[in-house]
Design goal:
Number of domains: 2
CATH topology of the largest domain: PH-domain like
Largest sheet: 4 strands, antiparallel
Strand order of the largest sheet: 1-2-3-4
Number of helices: 6
Radius of gyration: 21 Å
Strand content: 15-25%
Order of helices and strands: EHHHEEEEEEHHEH
Number of strands: 8
Distance between the termini: 10 Å
CATH class of the largest domain: Mainly Beta
Shape: elongated
């Protein structure tokens, strides 16, 4: 019998910023922002010496807003969220077992069944477990410690029958003998 895996994590600035960036830049508005920023730079370079000062200012401001301003705003948003959101003030406990993920903080407790997991996104700083296109639980990788491989293996193996969207780097846990070892521990 597989024993439940229990971890307690505190949200980190790196993980939350990574999550906010990935959420923004994986949507149309994020792609549009990058496209417009590079388009403005291309217009500046292409029109060098041929366009008016007003056009240069407009293109430079547009590029600065899209390529510098947006990332700065996203970083400040993540920082503010970490400081002000009550759910990030105390550690969150996740218990992973065959029934699902039990999320608890203080007196509050909720079971997320495996069939309700929509997507799992993995990066070097965080694991985001989505229960809808706009709602996710974020687990900082730095807080997972030596159990990271076991936790990732279980997340993938337990959700596999329900076909969630997985990050490419998590596909390795869907096949092979290593993932079965990870899930057993």
């Amino acid at each position: 019998m597989v024993k439940a895996k229990k971890i307690t994590v505190n949200m980190t600035q790196k993980a939350l910023t990574d999550f906010v960036f990935r959420s923004y830049y994986s949507r149309f508005t994020g792609f549009l922002s990058i496209f417009l920023g590079f388009l403005a730079i291309m217009m500046l370079v292409r029109g060098a010496g041929k366009i008016s000062v007003q056009s240069i200012i407009v293109y430079a401001v547009l590029a600065a807003i899209c390529l510098i301003g947006n990332p700065l705003v996203l970083m400040m948003k993540a920082r503010k969220q970490l400081r002000t959101n009550p759910s990030y003030k105390a550690p969150i406990t996740y218990e992973i077992d065959l029934a699902g993920i039990t999320v608890s903080q203080g007196e509050k407790q909720e079971l997320i069944q495996w069939k309700n997991i929509f997507r799992i996104r993995y990066s070097k700083n965080m694991v985001a477990v989505y229960t809808s296109p706009y709602h996710a639980f974020v687990l900082p990788n730095s807080e997972l410690g030596n159990d990271k491989e076991i936790i990732l293996g279980r997340l993938v193996q337990y959700t596999l029958p329900y076909k969630p969207r997985l990050s490419l780097s998590l596909k390795e846990f869907a096949h092979g003998s290593d993932s079965s070892k990870n899930i057993q521990q």
